[in-house]
Every structure is written in C-alpha cells, then in structure tokens.
Amino acid sequence: MTAKKIRQLYLDFFRSKGHAIIASASLIPENDPTTIFTGSGMQPIVPYLLGEKHPAGSKIADAQKCFRAQDIEEIGDNRHTTFFEMLGNWSLGDYFKKEQLAWIFEFLTKQAGLEPENLYFTVFRGNPELGIPRDDEAAGILKAEFKRAGLPAKTVDFSENGGLQDGRIFYYDETKNWWSRFGAPANMPKGEPGGPDCEIFYDFGAARQIHENSPFKHNPCHVNCDCGRFMEIGNSVFMQYLKTDQGFKRLPKGNIDFGGGLERIAAAANQEPDIFQTDLFTHLIFKIEQLSGKTYGADQGMTKAMRIIADHLKAVAFIMGDDRGVAPSNTDRGYVVRRLIRRAVRFGRQMDIKEPSWTKEITKITAHDYLSVYPELGKNINKVVEELEKEEVKFKKTLEQGLKEFEKITSQLAGKKISGQQAFYLYQSYGFPLEITAELAEEKNCLVDVEAFSAELKKHQELSRTASAGKFKGGLADSSEPVKKLHTAAHLLLAALRIVLGDTVAQKGSNITAERLRYDFSYGAKMTAEQIQQVEQLVNQAIKDGLPITCQEMSLEQAKESGAHGIFESKYGEKVKVYSAGDFSKEICGGPHVNNTGELGRFKIKKEESSSAGVRRIKAVLE
Predict the structure, then answer these.
(1) Is 169 in contact with 142 (CB distance < 8 Å)?
(2) Exposure string (b/e) for 340-362, b if CB count within 10 Å is 16 or more?
(3) How many Cα atoms sit within 13 Å of 58 on the Cβ side?
(4) Please, are residues 163 and 221 in contact by the beta-carbon 8 Å criterion?
(5) Contact at 8 Å (CB) between 403 and 429?
(6) Mind listing the pLDDT tens digit for each residue in 274-321?
(7) What residue ranges define each of the domains in the chain, with the CATH number in brackets?
C-alpha cells in the first residue's frame, strides 16, 4: 500500500461523498502574519471555519503540504518529520459527527486496509465547571462502528496510572481533546468558536512498548504515552461551541475539520512503525546509504543521522521548490532553510559522506518522487540545486575549521558550560548557528550559555547598525546632483526589476556615490543576459518618457495602501514621504531626487552578482 495510492484513495473516497477536491496551498502562507510556514491542513481553511464562504462549497477535501519548524529538534526518531502531508476534509456547516466518524472509520478500514482491532480513539471528557458536557455522542458513534466491525469497544475514563484497562475509546481532558485557536476553553476569548476533537491511534503491538529503549517501558501503557506502541494518525475536530458572556453556547451548525498524516497512515497500512521505511522515504534512504557506505538500521547513531538528512533535505526541496520558494539566508524563513541545510551537511560529515555537493542529489530524488503530485518541484528544481550547491560549498569551507575550534574550546573548558562569547565566536567566525553549537555540546555532555550568546548577538547587531548609520545617511554618499540622479535611477531600477523578475522582488539595501549605484534585491537566481537587457530598456524608456518626480506626505498605512514600496519600515515616523515617477514607480523614501526622469541620462548595468543567499546585487551607472 503506497502513500501515493493512499493519497488518491482518500481524495476519491471523499469525492464520492460529495466533497470538492481543492489543491494544496503554498507552504509559504499569504496574508497570514501569525506563522512563517503553513504548518497544518487547517491553516489555509481557518477563514472558512470562522464563517467565510468557500468558493468550492460546504464540503471540501485535500492533501496539504505542511512544514513545522518547531519539530526540527525531534527529528531522528521513527515518526517525526518537519515536512509532511496532511489529508484533510471539512464540513462548513454541512454534515457533522455521525457522518464524519463513520466515513473516517470506513476509509481507514475499507480503503487503507487498517485492521479495526488496531484502532483506538480518544474523545473529550467534558468540563462541568464550564458547562461543556462529555462527548458521549462521539463515543457512541464509534462504539457502533466497532460493533459493525464485530469488535467490542469499551469506553474508559483515562487515568495515567490505569493503563489501557481493555479500553478502545478513552476520555481525555482539554489538554488532549479540545481544539480552538487559543487552546483550552478557559483561554478562549468571547466570540471565539471551538470544540471537542477525536484523535485516532494505531496500535503496532505490545512489543513496540520497548522500541528504541523507550523510557516508558516500565510504565502503564496508554495511547498517548509515547512508548512506541501507539501512533496518532488523525484527528477530527468538532467545532460546535461559541464562547459568550453567558458561557459556552452550541452553534446552530457545527463545522468538521479532519487532518490525517499521510506518512503515518502509510506506516500503519504497511504495519511499519518506522515512517522512514515507507515508500515516501525509501529512495532517499537508499541514496544516503550509497553516499555514506552505511546501512540503515545497523547502528542507532547512523540511523538517526540518515533520518535527519532525509527529512531536512526533503523539507528544503519543498520550501525552496515552492512557487513562492525561499532561499537560505540569515532571517525568518531563509534562516530555517539555512539551518536545515547546515544540519544535514553536519550529519553527512558525521556519516563520512565524501562526495562534493551531495545534498542536491537528495532534493532531485524528492522532486522525482513527488513529480506527479506536486509538479512545481520539478519546475523549480534547477533553482533549488543551484542555491543548495552554493550553500553547501559555503558551509563546508568553514565547517571543518569550526569543528576544530569547537574541539579546542571544549578541551579547555574548566566546567561543563560553553560561554556566550565562545558560542558567538563560533557563530561569527565559522557560521555555526547556535542550535548546531548546542547539539555538539550536548554530544559532549556540555551546556551553552544561551542567554549570554543572545546578549553578544544583540550587542553585535547594535554596533553594526551604528556603523552603517555613520557611513552613509540613507545609503547616499552626499546630496550632490550626481548622487540625486543615481538615487532616482535606483527607484526606476526596482520598478523594472519587479516587472521583469516578479513582484516578490524587494530592496535589500543600497549604496550610492557620485560615480555609481550599488543595489541589493531579493531574488534567488542569477539574472540572464536577456533579463538584464529588459531591465535596462525599461529604465531607459522611463527616462526617455520624462516622467515628473512628485512627493506626497502620508501615514505609513496610507503609503502601504497606495501601493508604495519601502524597506526598514520601522525606522519611519508617523508621516512618510512617498516619491512617484509618473505611474512607473512609487516608493517610501527620504530623498533627495531630481525633478524629472529626463534629467538622468542613459542607464547602464555594469555588473549583476550574488550578494548573499537569495540576494542579488546590481552595480550600475548613468552615462
């Protein structure tokens, strides 16, 4: 039972139940400031769960690409991954618990082929103080489904010391079986919807309780104990309550949100508790075996390293290969990508992988394995490979030196703690993210003074900002006429770049003297000769058109609403200046500028090169 088949069976099954099948949203969320990646199947659907009408109707289903950066530290066991696919189905005020639980039970047992005797469920215990009853309705529906399958289904009020108690359906409190955007019912603000949920667990057998030296092996076993025996494979959320001044009220129509991990359902369908042994990872693991000369499963340390490499580079392929893809950098999403690549490279070194630029081979396999489902990976793979090669080469240059320096530091430690200054030295001189230093330290039973590292980093950033501010005001050498002209040309350059390369291009910095302009912008690939020529032509046409340069003062919000572009917005005051060159360019800026583009002369790009990962640099002149 391949994961590809399970994915298609799921979508076909819910299509047969009247659901519209929608495409996966991007891993890079749009208009969602709460998170930097799409981390669940629910995330893109939240507006519709809160009342907005979905264009596809009231019953929808999909397979959603997801990435959770918070799971990076957990990678290495047999069930956690940073990237995963969530199979989802939603009822937006349409069907409710009876249909949902019956359909999921049918899909798992009849379609995916899971044996009913290996399925366990948890439901909400209720909270009498808040007036929320126990979810006996869900438990009753599940008992009926098990009865149809010929199995008794005892319900048990969970107690940590009680173990399984021959139970099949377990009542847990709101820490496990309640969903809202704010967590437990008591944390929800008035006017917020939420409700109980029903989690599904697969039993790999009592022998799994001692799997991988489980610390739980001597404790009473239950479905949520993480001993290795049970794996959560899905969860149905019943959004049926609204918090009001009078307490929790039933909504007239409830919503259903189901999310099931494809990787975990595939593991259950194949009776394989290690998801890295399913077809979603086997090609990647085989390639890592070839590269390293090691065998998966032969050594616990090497097995963990293989899992980390396979997971991280698969995630990199999906994040960088997304149509809104992100290149490695030192900020936000780019930092996460860089961290994944560097961890993979470090564990590759631990496995003695010698081949240069080997990481790209893993991403190529990922693109091939998912080509029929996510064709954007194939379309963007060359860009991914190019960026990955650069990042790997850059990090490898410093990794060996950094590891030697790390060994020197730890060999001279008086105690068991690496100072913040030492950790910052590794960061600044050898490109070691704090997380890598912390991992290396843990392997030597050492700690890192994280607080002191943060203080050192903050001090360094403040000094850098002060130095930059003292060098050139606004990136300009002076206010002379040549500088004004080149500064105005820089505005035209950004507008032209966004036309030729796409509207994700943004300014990343500039430095302008009387002789030339140097301009940094976000873009993940080297510009072609044709693209450079197109940009030049657009700028020179704007100059030829003799566009008037106008300035308006407005609030920052008004400037954003008007479509003006700008960087470092936090430095601007309440009122900002917006300079426009006709309809061609509009930017938040402090000046100075010429009065008309016709004053500029001929614009010529002298050089286009890399500035840093995901950032390109143009040097240009006016002739």
Answers:
(1) yes
(2) bbbbbbbbbebbebeeeebbbbb
(3) 9
(4) yes
(5) no
(6) 999 999 999 999 999 999 999 999 998 899 999 999 999 999 999 999
(7) 3-277 (3.30.930.10), 282-382 (no CATH), 481-622 (3.30.980.10)
Q: Which two tokens stand for residue 183?
A: 């967590």
**Gyration radius of the chain over CA positions:** 28
pLDDT of residue 80: 92
The Cα 42–Cα 86 span in angstroms is 9
Task: Count Cβ atoms below 10 Å from residue 594 Cβ, excluding itself.
Answer: 17
Name the residue among 145, 89, 91, 149 with its Cα closest to residue 121.
Answer: 145
Query: Hey, what are 111's tokens?
Result: 């379609």
Identity (one letter) of the amino acid at 614? Answer: G
Q: What is the pLDDT of residues 432-487, one digit of tens each?
A: 878 889 888 988 889 999 999 988 888 776 764 563 333 333 345 556 788 889 99
Distances (CA, A) of 393 to 341, 398, 401, 435: 11, 9, 14, 20
DSSP bridge pairs for 195: 179
- For 437, which DSSP code? H
Cis geometry, peptide bond prior to residue 215 (ω within 30 degrees of 0): no
Task: Retrieve residue 532's tokens.
Answer: 């450079």
Per-residue pLDDT, 566? 72
The reported pLDDT for the residue numbered 511 is: 81
CB 177 within 8 A of CB 124: yes
Residues of the chain with pLDDT under 50: 464, 467-475, 567-574
SS3 119: strand
Amino acid letter, residue 329: S
What is the average pLDDT value for the chain, to the nearest integer? Answer: 88
DSSP string, 102-140: HHHHHIIIIIS---GGGEEEEEE--BGGGTB---HHHHH
> Residues of 454-482 as b/e, b for ≥16 C-beta within 10 angstroms?
eebbeeeeeeeeeeeeeeeeebbbeeeeb
Res 463: pLDDT: 60
Environment class of 164 (CB within 10 Å of its CB; exposed 0-12, middle 13-18, buried 19+)? buried
| Token pair recorded at residue 422 | 């030492």
Give the angle subtended at the CA of 231 by the CAs of 362 and 148, to the nearest 5°. 125
Distance of alpha carbon 430 from alpha carbon 206, whole angstroms: 47
